[in-house]
Prior knowledge:
- Strand 3 and strand 4 (63-70) form a beta hairpin.
- The protein has helices at residues 33-46, 73-94, 114-135, 167-182; strands at 4-11, 48-49, 52-59, 63-70, 107-111.
- It contains four helices and five strands; from the N terminus they run E-H-E-E-E-H-E-H-H.
- It is an alpha+beta fold and 184 residues long.
- Strands 2-3-4-1-5 form a five-stranded antiparallel sheet, with helices on both faces.
- The protein has a single domain, classed as Alpha-Beta Plaits (2-Layer Sandwich), CATH 3.30.70.
Amino acid sequence: MKKTQLILRFRKRKRGKVGRPRTDAGAGYMRKQRVVFAIEEAFRIARARFGMRIVHYSIQGNHLHLIVEAEDRESLAKGMQGLAIRIAKTLNRLFDRAGHVWADRYHSHVLRTRREVANALRYVLGNFARHARQWGETAARFADECSSIRYLGLAGEAAPVAAPRTWLLRIGWRSDVDTRHSRR
Length: 184
């Protein structure tokens, strides 16, 4: 069966008034180094299970962005359910708490074209830098240490991501980036 690429987003549970950017205080900020290490370890264990492969990720303060390959909808559902449970247990253990971590289910979008994949990669791997620029922080000039950009093309056995198998994620996205730059 043909593989699909998806961009997925988990958001942590919120408490308080609607529209406020606060998360449940017990669930903690996900960009702390010890939390990033724990989430990356969960990715290492789950990176190629149930027919789903984690190819890229970005850990934000209260949510995750993932690009995965899945054999079919069932593989995606099982893989995401297992990953959500693994990360929730990890975060609950890390913050010495119990209960729900995720506000809702994941949101997915099938990436079908080179441009969609290139834009998704740009969005996922550059998300924190874009927000840092808005806040006026100098971190915008550097690669995000809480994303998989440091494994781009180098996904070995110890990496929390798997090497992409589909043409669009291996090579195809680069063609779109190259043609966009050559038009200028």
